[in-house]
What does this fold into?
Amino acid sequence: MEKNIIEIKNLKVRYENIQALNNATLNVRKGECVTIVGANGAGKSSLLKAVMGFNKTDEGNIIFNNQNIENLPTYKRAALGISFVPEGARVFPKINVLGNLLLGAYKEKDKEKIIERLDYIYSLFPRLKEREKQLAGTLSGGERQMLAMARALMGKPLLLMMDEISLGLMPKLVDMVFEVVEELHKSGITILLSEQNAHKAAEVADRIYILELGKITKETDKEGLLNDPYIKKAYLGK
Amino acid sequence: MGDYLTTLLITVGIYTILSLSLNIIVGYAGQISLGHAAFWAIGAYSFAVLTTKYSIPFVEAAFFSIVITTLVGIFLGLPSLRVSEDFLAITTIGINFIVQGIFNSFDYFGGAMGIGNIPFPTMHGDMISNNTFLFITYLLVALTIIISYIFKVSWAGLASFAIKDDELAADVSGISPVIFKLLSFAIGSALAGLAGILYASFMGFISANDFSFPVSVAILAMVMVGGEGTILGPIFGAFLLILLPEFFRPIHSYRMFLYGILLVLMMIYQPNGFFGKKGIVWSMIKKS
Ligand SMILES: Nc1ncnc2c1ncn2[C@@H]1O[C@H](COP(=O)(O)OP(=O)(O)OP(=O)(O)O)[C@@H](O)[C@H]1O
Ligand SMILES: [Mg+2]
It folds into this structure.
């Protein structure tokens, strides 16, 4: 079995009087695609943000690539190889598409490598190439989501975390975005997703964690997820 | 050149350096500062103290003054890491008053009397002429423009602009808001320190009132009127705001009032400044 890229142990996140994350424990192994499924307010974003360093963690450990990172500032975690696509496609609105992508490769000083990655990313998202010179703020919602993903990939992450990438996209674009996820997974990138859409989660994930009210209540796989009576009821509407 | 015109142009040059230096903090890094005169003051006072109290030679004193201003600039830039934009505006106003207050109250800094007998540059033992001083001033203006340009087109400039655009997105891309905000404060205050040296040396006498809060507002107005984040804009702003009251003498006493009105009107009708995006001057240049 491959080794863990990330191990999250008994993580707790608290906002004033809400315990958003309660003893969450999970791991992602090298090359895996793992999805966290949960309803609105379950704590998915809180979990990913805590891993990235945006939420102060009260308790627990985050071990990334054999290193404790729970006390590092965000940009250092990014420098270690964690890329994060936050909820709502955060791009640099006043910078053009190309500039956004180059900023994603900020740590890389080797020009050849940057060009190589750009080519790869444009092959995944041809639409971004067409809009290379357009200001990111003027892109459509779907294009912005693609750009946010593409920018995260430019950093050549060891772990790519994405928070509800299907949010607000029309079904065709959701399919397209998940095809890209599939592609990335096949190419060997380690991925941690959060999703409300259990169907989509099942399509791409090797393993799935169910998050409820800040607690991981189940760990399962594709079949397990789609056959679980509770999940059918709660997430698949059957 | 007549002495009046020379003095006026030197003043414009000093303010050009000031507005370009504030532009690095406000325009490039998006850190609103309403206390830029404080850094100008620190440069001027460092130079005045080093030369008059410790008889340190001109060039060495100038060098150390810039070092001091840079260090203080980084230190005073620290609040920018913790507070949001609106609070930073208030914090920097506070900094301006504190710095002015210190220079005004401590005997070491000459108190309310200020510091006099600050040396004028010499060459082969003779004081240089005002025209030579003017020439040096504009060499330093050129240097400031070059630094502004290099910073703008460099990786650091792009990173700063990205932080200004979306700090969270920059952070997740591995771009440290801490480093680049402080870098902009360091460069911005170093150049303000340079302006302070020029001012102290040219005037020969400084007092804390020269660096009051309205002066900071005036410098910010130069940046905003011209167009924050551009290079031509702050230069244009400095020329306009200094020369306008000179050529229309009757409004001279009301110039702070004029700057205030100009700032408000610009924010409403030309928020990006004359040389910024959709600015009238920039649009005209692009058309022709
Ligand atoms: N900054 C905050 N301050 C206070 N409470 C917060 C904050 N952020 C999140 N919460 C609360 O924490 C809980 C978990 O929120 P979180 O955003 O992690 O959920 P989520 O699973 O991502 O939901 P969604 O699917 O709607 O994005 C919610 O009850 C939310 O109201
Ligand atoms: Mg969420």
About this structure: Chain A touches chain B at residues 52, 54, 73-76, 78-79, 83-86, 90-95, 99, 102-104, 106-107, 148, 151-152, 155 (CB under 8 Å). Residues A 44-45, 87, 163-164 surround magnesium ion (ligand 2) (CB under 6 Å).
